[in-house]
Structures are given as structure tokens and as C-alpha cells.
Amino acid sequence: MKAHVLDGKAFAAKLRVTIAGHVAALHQAQGIVPGLAVVLVGEDPASQVYVRSKGKMTREVGMQSFEHRLPDTTSEADLLALIAQLNADPAVHGILVQLPLPGHLNSDLVINSIDPAKDVDGFHISNVGLLGTGQKAMVPCTPLGCLMLLRDHHGSLAGKHAVVIGRSNIVGKPMAQLLLGDSCTVTIAHSRTADLAAMVRQADIVVAAVGRAQMVPGDWIKPGATVVDVGINRIATDDGGTRLVGDVDYDSCAAVAGAIAPVPGGVGPMTIACLLANTVTACCRANGLAEPAGLTV
Length: 297
Ligand SMILES: Nc1nc2c(c(=O)[nH]1)N[C@@H](CN(C=O)c1ccc(C(=O)N[C@@H](CCC(=O)O)C(=O)O)cc1)CN2
Description:
Blueprint: E1 4-5, H1 8-30, E2 35-41, H2 45-60, E3 64-70, H3 76-88, E4 94-97, H4 107-111, H5 125-132, H6 141-154, E5 161-165, H7 172-181, E6 185-189, H8 196-201, E7 205-208, E8 226-229, E9 233-236, E10 242-245, H9 250-254, E11 259-261, H10 267-286
The structure holds ligand LMY7XDAE.
The ligand Nc1nc2c(c(=O)[nH]1)N[C@@H](CN(C=O)c1ccc(C(=O)N[C@@H](CCC(=O)O)C(=O)O)cc1)CN2 is lined by residues 50, 96-99, 121, 141-142, 232, 244, 263-265, 268-269, 271-272.
GO molecular function, one term: methylenetetrahydrofolate dehydrogenase (NADP+) activity
Function: Catalyzes the oxidation of 5,10-methylenetetrahydrofolate to 5,10-methenyltetrahydrofolate and then the hydrolysis of 5,10-methenyltetrahydrofolate to 10-formyltetrahydrofolate.
Family: Belongs to the tetrahydrofolate dehydrogenase/cyclohydrolase family.
């Protein structure tokens, strides 16, 4: 059996077309243009690529993009002052601080200084609490993208056993909350889980977000299970170059799974599309307007 491929690239492209329609309608009916501010501190090469892509796609769907690039010597006080300015700016509906931040900056402090209503990453402690208690929140983009792919493939997820490998605040924990919200039975596993292979073999849905290249082999996967790979790992190739791989060993997992989200082209593109979706949602909430259906949970 060869697994069905969950094509995040195609899904994200369609979602961006839908978002562009909502942005145009907001402009026409209300004279409002949603605005997204992205803050990059330092020169991490991968972060620079993601931030460039975010700006480009923001503009492509018709929203305003505000980019702030700060040197890696930026003090915490200066970064907090910029966030305070963006919090107060009515043209800015969404604020995102690209992670990771340079080591001298306290990420928790910085994230929690963002107005929760503009926290389109869904990382602010208020949004974490709202999501965890089943209330209306801003939902982290990568887990939201995974959930959209899973719902699109399965319809209802109720009763399925989902094993999330990884316990990060960005992916693992919010992913588990979202799957619980869809009535899955959820196990959060991690590098210190006893007999991880046996645990993963019980899963109808595996979400791998552990940050270790090709860690999950095909013989950990229950035949027919759905595998969502969140990993982004660059590994060396024999010809001296590099290539991107996920946290699962694609070929052996695809041979056993019923469906699989690949790397690249699976969850990654969904992350940015969901960021744009969250910005439209934040803009509608800020203006007391009905939220378009299908952009969040
Ligand atoms: N503030 C945030 N920081 C980070 C987040 C986040 O959601 N918020 N997530 C990641 C990085 N990220 C977005 O910021 C991101 C990662 C990957 C992709 C993507 O499209 N990947 C492509 C491959 C791209 C490549 O070739 O390198 C794919 O998987 O197909 C988009 C966004 C950490 N920081």
C-alpha cells in the first residue's frame, strides 16, 4: 500500500485564495485592510527566509505587511518598546515575533507583552489558557494547519487515538489540545517516553514534532494510520549539499501509513496560510465583525 499524500502546499494555496476573498470583502464593505506586523531580531538564515515569505504572502492576499528587522544586539527594553508601539497601532491587527530569539532575550516575557487580541501566533499565556479551556482563542498556526489537514482527510476525528511526539509550547502542547477538542484520545509522548515505538504503534494518528531528523521509522506505524510530520531538519547529502527532511523516515512510513503529510510540502506551507487566516480573524474580532467560517477552530 502506498499512502495518500496530504498535500499541504495545495491546501495552503486554496486557503490563501479564500483569505484573499475575505480581505477584499472586508475592504469593500468596511473600508478595513487587515495588517500584520512581523518582527525579526538577528540574522538567523532560516528565520530570514520565513519572514520574507510571510511578508510576500501577506501582500499577495491584499493585507498590509509591516516588517521590523532589528539587529541581534537589540536590548529587551527596545524590543518591548516596539511591541508596545505595535499594540497601540490601529492599523496592526496581528503581531508576530519570529522565533527563536537571540539568547539574551527572554522569549516568554516578549511574547507575553503582545496584546493577546493581536497575538496571531497564539503563544501568549492568555491564548494558551483559552485554548486549554476550550474557549475562543488565537490558535497557534502550525497545529491549526495540521488540524485542517486531518479534518479534510478524515472528516470527524472523534474516537481516534492520536499520539503527539513532542511537548513544545509551539506545536506539541497546542496540537494535543486541538485533538482533544475534536474528541480524540490523546497521548503526548517525547524523547523520554518509555518504549516510544510501542506507544506510536497504537496510534491512528501520529503527529511527529520532536525536532530529530527521520527519527520515526515505518515499523513504528500501525498499518493504515495517518502520519503528520512537523519536523524541519536540514541534513547533508552525499554530493556535499543539504536537503530538508522531517521527523519521520518518509519512505518507510509512507509504505505502511494510510496517509502522510510530507516534508517539504505538508505542514510547513500551512503554517503561513494559517498565520494569514489568524490575522483576518483578529481583524474581524477587533472590529466587532462576524468571523469568516473555516479560518479557525
Ligand atoms: N513566531 C513563530 N516562529 C516560528 C514559527 C511560528 O509559527 N511562529 N514556526 C517555525 C518557522 N516557520 C514559521 O515561522 C515556518 C517553518 C516552515 C515553513 C515552510 O513553509 N516550510 C516548507 C519548506 C521551506 C524550506 O524549504 O525551507 C515546507 O515544509 O514545505 C513555513 C514557516 C519556527 N519559528
